[in-house]
């Protein structure tokens, strides 16, 4: 079990913040075997596709180099131009293959860990004691094992290939020059590809090993987790975000309960209070939603498709808003006023007189001490 400098065991998985800080320092999952495999497979594919044309182009360049005009060879002023042209032609021939390898080298890290940019010198790398510890660490032993395994596997495959393709390789000497060169490039491409395939096995072992090693290195002690939690909770922006999320969650829950309301008491524009009451199971009406201005409008819009009656009573709406709590029964001092509203709504519903329009009730008995202007 990994331990920190204080001797505490690192038993806890890394937090997102710890992982982000490690990535910013360049500590990400890396598998050299996976990148090497991608490079080798790209080179093999490039040789198979571009090999014949590349070999023929190189042969043509060699022919031109050996057939130079004697005047150019003896004229020292023309030598730089001749060599420069030869270099440009050679670069033009190799550009497709080199471009392919460059693209693979740039995109290879994206497969595991992604790109990281970190500047800074790590002085602990100069510590000889830590260097010896790294030399005999289990990760170093794993790297040694991978190197020996790669050598044995690739050497075995190479010997087998030479044994199987010996007649084909020996027959190349009997072919004309240009066909032999093209055939050689094709054979080299396939041989290179087959020699690369064993690297799939090495990479298949190395990638999970590197992921587990990375996660193990990022582990934290229980104290580090507690300290980070305290640090995060103490930040004003984190507290603000938590409050916003809590408010949003509470508002969503409140809006979900609006369809259960029996009546909306409105101001009619600035205040809206939604009440729910079941005489058989409830001792008093309960406030299921309330709000002012924009929230009041949202409550009315949410209630509209469910045909919940709206009663316009400014005094009662303000009294309910300032003296009631969400999901709590209304205060006893407002029983009479709310009972008058509910009885009137029930009578209209019974007589089928509700037409969806707001109902004005300005004479409800709101106690003077609860009235808010």
TrEMBL record:
InterPro entries found in the cross-reference section: FlhB, T3SS_substrate_exporter, T3SS_substrate_exporter_C
GO annotation terms (biological process): bacterial-type flagellum assembly; protein secretion
Keywords: Bacterial flagellum biogenesis, Bacterial flagellum protein export, Cell membrane, Cell projection, Cilium, Flagellum, Membrane, Protein transport, Transmembrane, Transmembrane helix, Transport
Function of the molecule: Required for formation of the rod structure in the basal body of the flagellar apparatus. Together with FliI and FliH, may constitute the export apparatus of flagellin.
The UniProt record lists the keyword Zinc-finger: no
Localization: Cell membrane
Gene Ontology CC terms: plasma membrane
Record-annotated membrane-spanning stretches: 34-55, 97-123, 144-164, 187-212
Similarity-based family: Belongs to the type III secretion exporter family.
Biased amino acid composition, Basic and acidic residues: 7-24
Superkingdom, natural source: Bacteria
Mode of membrane association: Multi-pass membrane protein
Protein name per its UniProtKB record: Flagellar biosynthetic protein FlhB
Chain residue ranges for the region called Disordered: 1-25
Gene: flhB
């Amino acid at each position: 079990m990994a331990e920190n400098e204080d001797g505490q065991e690192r038993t806890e998985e890394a937090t997102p913040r710890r992982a982000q800080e490690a990535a910013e320092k360049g500590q990400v999952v890396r598998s050299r075997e996976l990148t090497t495999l991608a490079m080798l497979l790209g080179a093999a594919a490039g040789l198979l596709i571009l090999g014949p044309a590349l070999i023929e182009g190189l042969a043509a360049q060699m022919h031109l180099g050996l057939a130079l005009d004697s005047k150019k060879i003896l004229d020292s002023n023309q030598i730089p131009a001749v060599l420069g042209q030869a270099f440009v032609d050679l670069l033009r021939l190799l550009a497709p293959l080199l471009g392919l390898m460059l693209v693979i080298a740039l995109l290879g890290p994206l497969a595991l860990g992604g790109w990281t940019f970190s500047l800074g010198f790590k002085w602990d790398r100069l510590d000889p004691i830590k260097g010896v510890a790294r030399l005999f660490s289990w990760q170093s032993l794993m790297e040694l094992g991978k190197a020996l395994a790669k050598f044995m596997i690739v050497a075995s495959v190479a010997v087998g290939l030479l044994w199987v393709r010996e007649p084909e390789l020996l027959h190349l000497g009997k072919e004309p020059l240009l066909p032999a060169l093209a055939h050689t490039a094709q054979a080299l491409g396939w041989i290179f590809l087959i020699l690369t395939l064993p690297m799939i096995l090495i990479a298949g072992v190395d990638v999970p090993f590197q992921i587990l090693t990375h996660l193990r290195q990022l582990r934290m002690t229980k104290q580090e987790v507690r300290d980070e939690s305290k640090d995060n909770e103490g930040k004003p922006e984190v507290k603000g975000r938590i409050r916003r999320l809590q408010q949003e969650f509470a508002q969503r829950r409140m809006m979900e309960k609006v369809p259960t309301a029996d009546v909306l008491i409105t101001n009619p524009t600035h205040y809206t209070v939604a009440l729910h009451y079941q005489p058989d199971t409830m001792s008093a009406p309960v406030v299921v939603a309330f709000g002012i201005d924009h929230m009041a409008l949202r409550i009315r819009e949410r209630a509209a498709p469910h045909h919940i009656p709206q009663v316009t009573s400014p005094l009662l709406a303000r009294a309910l808003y300032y003296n009631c709590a969400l999901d709590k029964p209304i205060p006893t001092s407002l029983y009479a006023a709310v009972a008058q509203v509910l009885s009137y709504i029930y009578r209209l519903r019974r007589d089928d007189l509700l037409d969806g329009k707001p109902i004005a009730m300005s004479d409800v008995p709101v106690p003077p001490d609860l009235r808010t202007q």
